[in-house]
């Protein structure tokens, strides 16, 4: 689904968006008064991005070191408090902080009942099963309503749509598919495929994905490096995530040097971009793609 400004949404798209927002709204108190945006914490990285899109700097974020390695942008100010692991945040610290709202990713980290003992919780979902950007738009609207920032949410979605429209001509000549990957260890890579955030962006930009194999709910799959040898005619982009030692080890190996895309000099390394983010990650991904492949066939 294309991310259109609210005024330009078709009736069917608008009803879908409102429906998703209603489901997300139920994760918090119905008809509750807007909460203090300056005291919101994020227990997972997707809600961090949603908050920043609304112009809100979170009071605290889980696993800031991991965030910097895997997400990178938007950068977090030094004032943001580290809340511990995303799977097991420091509940005692959270209680001391007295947040107005605890934003989390549904199905990840502490159970909603634990969160509710400390502060109101707000759960968001990465995807509706097929379209992460659709879910991201619904999440942004719902969170904006919860924080009394609905106009900012609508403005951001309009800016996102305009950004994609500006980017699309940069890839108008592209015919060769692109493989998106990240090295996990010396023998495995994560590849991005259908139902992913990046796939939806690529669809909007008219870029074919070279990975047509199996994926999980989040649109990614961890595979053996040897399977990359089947990628014979594609540009390959590898996203770093603070893994320089593994990267050097893999890229110095005979197996890697024999890869078709390496021999054809169609391999690029890229800074971290969060595979499981929302509109800001989508925009950063498109920017990185443009810097590496924009204007190429």
Would you kindly provide a brief summary of this structure?
The chain is of the alpha/beta class.
End-to-end Cα distance, whole Å, is 26 Å
* Strand percent estimate: 5-15%
- Level of helix content? 25-40%
Please state the average pLDDT score: 88
**Poorly predicted regions:** 1-32
Which word captures the global form? globular
Main beta sheet: strand number and arrangement? 5 strands, parallel
Task: List the total number of helices.
Answer: 12
Order of helices and strands: HEHEHEHEHEHHEEHEEHHHEH
Features:
globular; alpha/beta; five-stranded mixed β-sheet; 39% helix; disordered N terminus; single chain; 297 residues; five-stranded parallel β-sheet; 12 helices
Structure description:
The protein is α/β, with parallel strands linked by helices. The chain has 12 helices and 10 strands. It has helices spanning 11-25, 45-53, 64-70, 91-97, 112-116, 132-146, 150-167, 197-205, 244-251, 254-257, 260-263, 279-293, and strands spanning 40-42, 60-61, 81-82, 101-105, 121-124, 178-183, 188-192, 220-224, 235-239, 267-270. The strands form 2 sheets. The chain has a 5-stranded parallel beta sheet with strand order 3-2-1-4-5. Strands 8-7-6-9-10 form a 5-stranded mixed beta sheet, with no helix packed on it.
List the topology elements.
Layout: H1 11-25, E1 40-42, H2 45-53, E2 60-61, H3 64-70, E3 81-82, H4 91-97, E4 101-105, H5 112-116, E5 121-124, H6 132-146, H7 150-167, E6 178-183, E7 188-192, H8 197-205, E8 220-224, E9 235-239, H9 244-251, H10 254-257, H11 260-263, E10 267-270, H12 279-293
Parallel strand pairs: 1-2, 1-4, 2-3, 4-5, 6-9, 9-10
Antiparallel strand pairs: 6-7, 7-8
Helix pairs in contact: 1-6, 6-7, 7-12
């Amino acid at each position: 689904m294309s991310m259109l400004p609210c005024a330009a949404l078709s009736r069917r798209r608008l009803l879908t968006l409102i429906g998703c927002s209603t489901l997300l709204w139920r994760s918090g108190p119905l008809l509750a008064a807007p909460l203090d945006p300056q005291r919101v914490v994020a227990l997972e990285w997707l809600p961090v991005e949603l908050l920043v899109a609304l112009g809100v700097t979170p009071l605290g974020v889980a696993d800031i070191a991991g965030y910097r390695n895997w997400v990178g942008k938007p950068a977090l100010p030094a004032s943001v408090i580290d809340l511990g692991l995303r799977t097991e945040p420091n509940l005692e610290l959270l209680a001391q902080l007295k947040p107005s709202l605890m934003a989390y990713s549904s199905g990840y980290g502490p159970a909603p009942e634990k969160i509710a003992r400390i502060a109101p919780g707000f759960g968001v979902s990465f995807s509706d099963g097929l379209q992460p950007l659709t879910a991201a738009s619904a999440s942004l609207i719902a969170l904006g309503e919860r924080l009394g920032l609905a106009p900012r949410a609508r403005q951001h979605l309009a800016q996102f749509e305009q950004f994609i429209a500006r980017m699309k001509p940069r890839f108008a000549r592209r015919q060769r598919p692109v493989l998106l990957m990240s090295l996990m260890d010396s023998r495995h890579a994560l590849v991005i495929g259908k139902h992913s955030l990046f796939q939806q962006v690529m669809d909007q930009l008219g870029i074919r994905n070279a990975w047509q194999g199996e994926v999980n709910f989040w649109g990614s799959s961890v595979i053996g490096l040897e399977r990359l040898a089947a990628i014979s005619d594609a540009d390959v982009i590898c996203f770093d995530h603070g893994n320089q030692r593994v990267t050097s080890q893999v890229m110095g190996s005979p197996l890697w040097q024999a890869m078709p895309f390496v021999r054809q000099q169609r391999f690029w390394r890229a800074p971290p971009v969060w595979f499981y983010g929302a509109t800001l990650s989508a925009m950063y991904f498109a920017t990185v793609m443009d810097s590496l492949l924009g204007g190429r066939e």
